[in-house]
């Protein structure tokens, strides 16, 4: 790996003890050279396109992606639906020599690489990724380029701010969501990679620092009643989308069971007698949280213990 890619980690660095479940889902892998991050940030901010709004069913709006490595035969950066295979650089990556050298220096087996932008007041709803792909081992790496404290990942009952200056790993085959509450834009370099020796070496010491993660509170009976009352009032006034978003956003405030926000919306519509809408959200939950065969096997193993 290139000598400019990683920075030395201070021996006095304070690490947290987040618990095995959270650490399996999100972790820092390495610190990055500050100058390198600044140069990649400049390239990303200078990109001639914001990309495309894709995966609309997963988001509130405001999630833009542009491909740096994909499977487009003509290198089109606006082809942003990820898939398996050996990618090639897009015309956008050709304009970003520092980022291109960084990726090459990692020495990893890439599946897909993107720039991903989440605008202020935007959400990626709770979901899983990779369910439609085969069972080959794969991982998602994040390099935060522009971020802010309100831009958080929610997973395993915790809220995690993926701070700039580190290379992070996410396990996207497990339920997660993202929020950028106040802005500015959250801009990340995201690389999906296959498991190989280079990845195993990179991921030798996953960790979180003190302050990276905040445990979410449980949803009390009183909290639940207030949420349902507020959503019901909005629905009765005809503001159905707003009513649903009140309940969708509960995922970012409380440690809900998996799919709990979707269950609240289904209950809202059932109580209204809107059975078509209730069925739609039941199906949305099944689609957004679809499991791969391997994740189902892992869950069965944990439940048997």
> What's the structural domain tally?
2
Rg over CA atoms: 20 Å
The computed structural class is alpha+beta
- In DSSP terms (H or I, runs of 4 or more residues), the helix count works out at 9
Alpha carbon gap, first and last residue? 40 Å
SSE layout and pairing:
Elements: H1 20-25, E1 26-31, H2 34-45, E2 52-53, E3 63-70, E4 88-89, H3 97-106, E5 110-118, E6 122-127, E7 138-146, E8 151-155, E9 158-160, E10 166-170, E11 176-180, E12 186-194, H4 197-202, E13 213-215, H5 221-236, H6 240-248, H7 260-272, H8 275-288, H9 293-304
Antiparallel strand pairs: 1-10, 2-3, 3-4, 3-5, 5-12, 6-11, 7-10, 7-12, 8-9, 8-11, 9-13
Helix pairs in contact: 2-3, 5-6, 6-7, 7-8
Structure report:
With 305 residues, this protein is α+β, with helices and mostly antiparallel strands. It has 2 domains: 23-215, Sandwich (Jelly Rolls); 221-288. Helix content is 32%, strand content 24%. The protein contains 9 helices and 13 strands. It has helices spanning 20-25, 34-45, 97-106, 197-202, 221-236, 240-248, 260-272, 275-288, 293-304; strands at 26-31, 52-53, 63-70, 88-89, 110-118, 122-127, 138-146, 151-155, 158-160, 166-170, 176-180, 186-194, 213-215. Strands 1, 2, 3, 4, 5, 7, 10 and 12 form an 8-stranded antiparallel beta sheet that branches. Helix 2 (34-45) packs across helix 3 (97-106) and helix 7 packs antiparallel against helix 8 (275-288). It is globular, with a radius of gyration of 20 Å. Residues 293-305 have low confidence and may be disordered.
């Amino acid at each position: 790996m290139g000598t400019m890619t990683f920075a030395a980690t201070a021996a006095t660095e304070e690490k947290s003890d987040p618990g095995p479940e959270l650490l399996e889902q999100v972790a820092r892998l390495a610190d990055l050279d500050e100058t390198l991050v600044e140069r990649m940030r400049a390239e990303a901010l200078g990109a001639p396109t914001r990309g495309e709004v894709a995966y609309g069913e997963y988001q509130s709006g405001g999630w833009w992606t542009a491909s740096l490595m994909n499977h487009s035969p003509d290198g089109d950066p606006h082809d942003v639906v990820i898939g398996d295979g050996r990618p090639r650089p897009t015309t956008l990556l050709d304009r970003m020599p520092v980022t291109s050298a960084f990726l090459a220096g990692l020495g990893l087996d890439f599946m897909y690489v993107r720039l991903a932008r989440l605008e202020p007041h935007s959400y990626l709803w709770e979901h899983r990724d990779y369910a439609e792909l085969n069972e080959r081992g794969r991982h998602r790496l994040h390099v935060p380029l522009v971020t802010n404290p309100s831009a958080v990942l929610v997973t395993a009952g915790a809220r995690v701010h993926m701070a700039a200056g580190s290379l992070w790993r996410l396990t996207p085959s497990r339920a997660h969501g993202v929020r950028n509450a106040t802005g500015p834009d959250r801009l990340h370099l995201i690389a999906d990679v296959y498991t190989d020796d280079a990845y195993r070496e990179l991921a030798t010491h996953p960790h979180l620092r003190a302050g990276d993660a905040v445990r979410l509170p449980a949803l009390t009976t009183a909290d639940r009643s207030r949420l349902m009352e507020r959503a019901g009032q909005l629905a009765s006034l005809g503001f159905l989308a707003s009513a649903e978003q009140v309940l969708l956003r509960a995922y970012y405030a409380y440690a809900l069971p998996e799919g709990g926000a979707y269950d609240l919306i289904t209950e809202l519509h059932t109580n209204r007698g809107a059975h078509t809408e209730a069925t739609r959200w039941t199906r949305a939950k099944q689609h957004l949280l679809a499991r791969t065969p391997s994740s189902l096997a892992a869950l069965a193993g944990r439940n048997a213990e």
